[in-house]
Amino acid sequence: MLTSKLALNGGSPVIKVKFPRYNSIGKEELIAATAVIESGVLSKFIGAWNSDFYGGSKVQEFERNCEQYFNVRNAVTVNSWTSGLICAVGALEIEPGDEIIVSPWTMSATATSILHWNAIPVFADIEDITYGLDPVSIEKNITQYTKAIISVDIFGHSAKMTEICKIAKKYNLKVISDCAQSPGAIYNNSFAGTLGDIGGFSLNYHKHIHTGEGGILVTNNDEYAERMRLIRNHAEAVVGDMPNNRLINMLGYNFRMGEIEAAIGIEQLKKLNSFLKSRQSAAKYLTEKLSIIPGLKLPYVEKNCTHAYYAYPMQIDCKILGVTRDKLHSALVAEGLNISNRYQNIHLLPLFQNKIAYGSKGFPWNSEFTKREVSYQKGICPTAEYLQDNSFMSIGMCFTEMSKSEIDLIAECFYKVWANLDDLR
């Protein structure tokens, strides 16, 4: 291991030049996008009940291709995964005041999509192996007002969906799988995102495949799919002309994907398997390099599962090392490594701490629809909070190409810092 002076203390950093940005866009996407531009049809959606309600030829082709790839009856494209989450929650006919259990470790939109329909997010804790929702904590947080669970497959590994779906069945709850970071990941021989009632994936720029912005919803429930298509495209103006004109949550939006994005998505989907293999190969090599380092817990992949490796999560055993996570993080950053030392606990955001969302009076928490006081105080998610405050670090796997030479340098950063632990104690 390297023993030269830490960059934090004035030494020369291991990584002196930024790694090249991960770029999944190639000539195939350029040709596809150019063809759409030359056609002059950049979008074909109309917010009325006619043949163009479902969008243009590229949108529909992309959706059919996603249905085939993920082996589902329905795929619905949207202009972002945030939009997708709003569509998914609305499609379940959630009522104001209903409670939905959600992970604290996710992007804020996972929780605010619940608030969007004036329902109440209830945060259950995560487990520290897959970082997904802990089934035990889910069950502890179920009340008579609980209607659904939003499970998050964070970092690229599926949550414990067998247990989660059993709990949902026991209490007659619906399950939404937020698989923004895990497209193509496998759980018990099925794709992540296809095990609950509705699932979906993000297509924004730092994901495995992307269309700039965008999202894909998947479901085997035809009614949910049609309701999501309605919410995507001005439902209130369309639903009255449709055969099934149920009005619940038929407040529609313009969440529609354009033809250029869909054309790019068609080409990106063809490459997903190769991109996944590339990230998995890089993660395997990184694990080999870091496995000799004491006090470092590396990613775990459950039996019959695959990891998509949107990120490479780790935990620091500070008791063994005698150094705090934050000191180690600072030393690694000084060596030129782009590494995170935390993952945001959503329940601790000011929005939830103050329960201020719509207006200034605390709606929807402070309303006739909400039947009980829901706590967001620190301490409700002890595992998530401990990881955030003390031990978690991660390396983004979809920000750079992660070549072997780059991984060698990443490992050298760890070797050097660990060889100089006395300087950090």
Notable features of this structure?
425 residues, alpha/beta, Aspartate Aminotransferase, domain 1, Aspartate Aminotransferase, domain 2, 2 domains, 7-stranded mixed sheet, 3-stranded antiparallel sheet, 15 helices, 12 strands, globular
Would you give an account of this structure?
- The structure is a single chain.
- This protein is an alpha/beta fold and 425 residues long.
- The chain is 38% helix and 12% strand.
- The protein contains 15 helices and twelve strands.
- Strands 1-9-8-5-4-2-3 form a seven-stranded mixed sheet, with helices on both faces.
- Strand 2 (99-102), helix 4 and strand 3 (120-123) form a beta-alpha-beta unit.
- The protein is globular.
Strand content: 5-15%
**How many domains would you count in the coordinates?**
2
User: What is the share of helical residues?
Assistant: 25-40%
Which structural class matches the secondary elements? alpha/beta
Given this structure, which CATH class of the largest domain is correct?
Alpha Beta
